[in-house]
Every structure is written in C-alpha cells, then in structure tokens.
Specification:
Layout (H helix, E strand, L loop, with lengths): L47 E2 L9 E5 L4 E7 L5 E5 L10 H8 L6 E8 L9 H7 L13 E10 L2 E2 L5 H11 L6 E3 L7 H10 L4 E6 L12 E5 L2 E12 L7 E10 L2 E8 L5 H12 L19 E2 L5 E6 L1 E2 L5 E2 L2 E6 L15
Parallel strand pairs: 1-10, 6-8
Antiparallel strand pairs: 2-9, 3-4, 3-5, 5-6, 6-7, 9-10, 11-12, 11-14, 11-15, 12-13, 15-18, 16-17
C-alpha cells in the first residue's frame, strides 16, 4: 500500500507569519496592466507555400490578401501604431487604419493582418496600394487603405499567442465592427478545391489554409499554408535593356534570385508597367549605376544591358519556371520597400 505523505505546514513556527514570494516590479510604461505584459513587437506567423490546399476538419480557409503584412498595436497609453512585417512604424501612412483602431474601444491589443487597397471589383491590389502611397517609394498618407484583420494576439492584458486559432478568431470577429477601415478576414466554409477554383475565377492571388488548433508561432512552420493562383515573389533588379520607344526608356528589367547565398539571373520582365511608374523607376535606376564593367550576376546572354547595383527589389507575378530556371510569363507589380517586406526569392528553398 502506497504511503501517504503529509503536507508541509503553512507556518514554520507558531509565531512567524506566512510569506509569499516578492512581486516583480511592474513595467512603468504599463501601470494598469495586471496580467500579461504587452509585447513591443511580435515576429509574424508566415504561411508555407503549397501547390494544393489541405483537407480535413482541422483546417480553415481564407482569402490571400495582396498587400503589405502589418500589425496594429493599441498601447495602454492610448497610442496606436501600425507596424510592418519587419517592425517599421508606418502609422502616418495609414491614418484611416489608425482611426479605425481607436474606435475599437479596447485598452490594449495587437491585431495581425494585411494592409490593402481594393479595385472596383473588390479585389485587393498591391499596385493600387503603392499608388495610394504616391507610387514607388511613396510615403504620402493612403486614405484608401484598409486593414484586413485575421488574428488577435493580445487583448486587454491577455496574451493569446498560446491559445488555439479558433478561439483567437472568435474573439477577433466580435471585436471588429466592420464599418471602419478595419475589416475582419472571413473564413469560408467550402470544399478547399472549390474555394481555390473560385479564387482563380475571380482573379484573386490565392487562398490561405490555417490549422484551427494551432498556437501562434512566429516563422514559417506549416501551421499556415498559402496556395497561389498566380505566383508572386520578390526579385532583385540587376539591370535593364534600353529602349527608346518604351515607357521609362527601358524594354525590360533583368531580375535575380538567391541561390546558395549568391544572386543569379532568373530572366526578365517587360510587361505590367504604367508610364508614370516606369518613368519614376528609371530615375531611381539612374541613381544606382554599376561602377564595374562586369554584371553583378553571372550572365552569358547577348542582350544589351545597362547593369546596376542590385538594390531595388521588384514584386513580380509569373506563371511558373522554364527548365533552366527562368521566369515564365512574368509581369511587374511594383517595388517592394528596401527596408521592409522584401524577402528575395530563394531558388534553393522555393521561398
């Protein structure tokens, strides 16, 4: 028979009072926060690219929004910040989003989502978002921008990152009023193959599948999956082909991706440019001359190319790859910010 252990007495003797552990000092920046401290920034959970959507009751499905990944921070002090994926404060660029966050009526919160602009058909459009900011490298306030919220990480002193996605989204849905620049990214109850086909039919970028039971884990770990209708990734501009009759005086841009830690040429893009943005892009390229005679990437082609410093990063839509790893049916979507949201395509990982 197992022995029964006796509990330790509450008091060490009859006269000494019971004492608890000393409390840790509060963060003076959060004087009213009694529960979990609010993170100053959270590395985002990223979606892993897949060719087909997963199936089963554990998965939920949303639209893949075509914009900039962002997070809204509502501080205990009342300050609202809109942070980009890499932690840059772009609050001044999106005043309507900031105002919408102030109307939520919460003491503190962190919302994960995508900053977007919509076309006339209600589709998110990365190029329109850039135009609303004043074009490539623009920083004027984008009054037309909205925030598609799809996750809730923190609310009124509670950190929900270790809570299941289904619970986080239930709380988020009840939080978003829907009549401001903050919108709830809805879940679609449909067969995933049918949902993906509908996304293709309506010209959307793709769909996102998420594990309903997953906790919020930073990084690309497979809890979230992205299935793209049309591939779209970031590539470095390494040069251009001059053309007198084309917008901006160039016929196409030469593009590079990463491979084994180095930049390699993956072809070119010659469509998708509007006159105004092509002229602005040419001015930026002219400020980045390549001082060396040799190209910045290994190149064996015979095109007349003006090589340049590999600094500018372009978002390119494409339909696939050729056998020698060159882009097929590529189209220019816009420039990515140099300091943010510019993960250059890696040929080794496919990301």
């Amino acid at each position: 028979m197992a022995r029964r252990t006796t509990s330790k007495p509450l008091l060490t003797d009859d006269t000494a009072p019971a004492r608890s552990r000393p409390r840790k000092p509060r963060d003076p920046a959060q004087p009213r926060l009694l529960l979990d401290p609010m993170p100053s920034r959270v590395e985002p959970c990223l979606a892993l690219l897949k060719s087909k959507p997963p199936k089963g009751p554990d998965w939920s499905y949303e639209i893949k929004w075509d914009g900039w990944r962002g997070a809204i921070h509502i501080e205990p002090s009342g300050v609202v910040r809109v942070l980009t994926k890499n932690g840059h404060d772009w609050s001044k660029r999106f005043p309507a989003v900031v105002e919408g966050a102030k109307q939520l009526g919460v003491a503190s919160a962190i919302l994960d989502g995508e900053i977007v602009c919509f076309d006339e058909q209600g589709r998110s459009d990365f190029n329109l978002l850039q135009q609303s900011l004043g074009g490539a490298r623009g920083s004027r306030p984008a009054a037309e921008a909205a925030f598609m919220a799809f996750d809730l990480l923190y609310l009124d002193g509670h950190d929900f990152r270790n809570t299941e996605l289904s619970v986080r989204r239930h709380l988020l849905e009840n939080l978003i009023p829907g009549d401001t620049a903050l919108k709830f990214s809805e879940e679609f109850d449909a067969d995933p193959d049918d949902f993906f086909a509908a996304a293709e039919q309506h010209g959307l970028e793709g769909i996102i599948a998420k594990d309903r039971n997953s906790l919020y884990r930073s990084g690309r770990l497979g809890d979230w999956l992205k299935i793209k209708c049309v591939a779209s990734d970031a590539f470095v501009i390494v040069g251009y082909e001059p053309s007198i009759g084309a917008y901006g005086g160039f016929g196409s841009l030469l593009l590079a991706a990463r491979k084994a830690g180095q930049l390699v040429c993956v072809g070119s893009v010659g469509t998708g440019f509007k006159e105004r943005e092509a002229n602005a892009l040419r001015k930026m390229m002219d400020k980045l001359p390549w001082k060396k005679k040799a190209p910045p990437v290994p190149y064996s082609g015979k095109r007349q190319v003006v090589w340049q410093q590999p600094t500018l990063i372009a978002e390119i839509a494409y339909r696939g790859w050729t056998g020698d790893r060159k882009l097929r049916h590529s189209s220019f979507k816009g420039l990515r910010e140099l300091q943010d949201d510019a993960t250059i395509y890696d040929l080794d990982s496919g990301d």
